[in-house]
Amino acid sequence: MVFKEIVKEELIFVQKSFKENSDVIKFLSEELRERSFVKESFCDAVLEREKKHPTGLYLGKINVAIPHADIKYVNKPGMAVATLQKPISFRKMDDPTLTIPVHIVFLLALVDPNEYVKFLSSLTRSFSDESFISLIYSLNDTERFVKSIRKMIK
């Protein structure tokens, strides 16, 4: 699978406003479901997984969350992304007792477990570049957002 193909302009949502992390997960899940990327049960599976295995990733100034569900809830590979007007609390991946303010949510839907690991690795590697995270968070143009992500994901 070519990771760059997972990033689609119609699944990028910039400067959205939500009250809770479950709201953004529900919104992005529905966008994936409407385009047949995921099964009806995907959203509930993501929310349930998030309770047990939080996905908030502390990066410093701009933090991300990478919620996802098991491959059995996915029809075809895809990713929906939302940048948030105001950060939303997510529990920290490496310390679930803590919450962090998340600015960007990457909702993953992948069908191959091996590809999941490779894609997550590529995505999180790109997060180590603070200028990249700052750039994509500041963009209001979905086309530029997609080009920036595709450039970083190998």
Write up what this structure looks like:
By secondary structure, the protein is an alpha/beta fold. The protein has a single domain, classed as Mannitol-specific EII, Chain A. Helices cover 39% and strands 25% of the residues. The chain has five helices and five strands. Helix 1 (21-34) packs antiparallel against helix 2 (42-52). The longest helix has 15 residues, at 113-127. The termini are close together. The mean pLDDT is 91.
Keywords:
154 residues; globular; alpha/beta
Question: What is the ordering of alpha helices and beta strands?
Answer: EHHEEEEHHH
The first-to-last residue Cα distance is: 11 Å
Largest sheet: 5 strands, mixed
Oligomer: single chain
The CATH H-level superfamily is: Mannitol-specific EII, Chain A
**How big is the Rg?**
14 Å
Structural class given helices, strands, pairing? alpha/beta
The number of distinct helices, counting runs of at least 4 residues, comes to 5
| Name given to the CATH architecture | 3-Layer(aba) Sandwich
Q: Taking all residues together, what is the mean pLDDT? A: 91
Tell me the strand percentage band.
25-35%
The domain tally reads: 1
Regions with little confidence, pLDDT below 50 for 5+ residues? none
Overall geometry: globular
Lateral arrangement of strands in the main beta sheet:
1-4-5-3-2
How many strands?
5
CATH class equals Alpha Beta
Q: Helical amount among residues, as a percent range? A: 25-40%
Q: Provide the CATH topology.
A: Mannitol-specific EII, Chain A
